[in-house]
């Protein structure tokens, strides 16, 4: 599997992603049953999508200095652990994510706070962000 590492590294480098060597070797070992080179890259990519970016990807050098209140225009890879729409209640956001048939109630109810549950939702989405300000 080590012989496939340069091909996979090249694929990720074209997308401005520097993989950690130990993570790449583990991912290649995990998907080693696959024979096709193109399929192998896809399988490693799928592993990377759901991996913690801290363990799978080399950090971008000097990224904090790049932020400094400016817009970023070059391609960067970020892993966002949570986003909250401040214009929508957390309950409504949760319902929309967990129940596709959820319809918002028309009438307004009095607030009735409930303790937080233990359910955790995970999702992954890959898309280009044209401009980001931090």
Automatic annotation (TrEMBL):
Annotated InterPro entries: RMI1_N (IPR049363), RMI1_N_N_sf (IPR044881)
Gene3D superfamilies reported in the protein's UniProt record: RecQ-mediated genome instability protein 1, N-terminal domain
Disordered: annotated segments: 102-122
Domain RMI1 N-terminal, first and last residues per copy: 12-56
Gene Ontology cellular-component annotations: nuclear body; RecQ family helicase-topoisomerase III complex
Protein name: RecQ mediated genome instability protein 1-like N-terminal helical domain-containing protein
Gene Ontology terms: biological process: double-strand break repair via homologous recombination; resolution of meiotic recombination intermediates
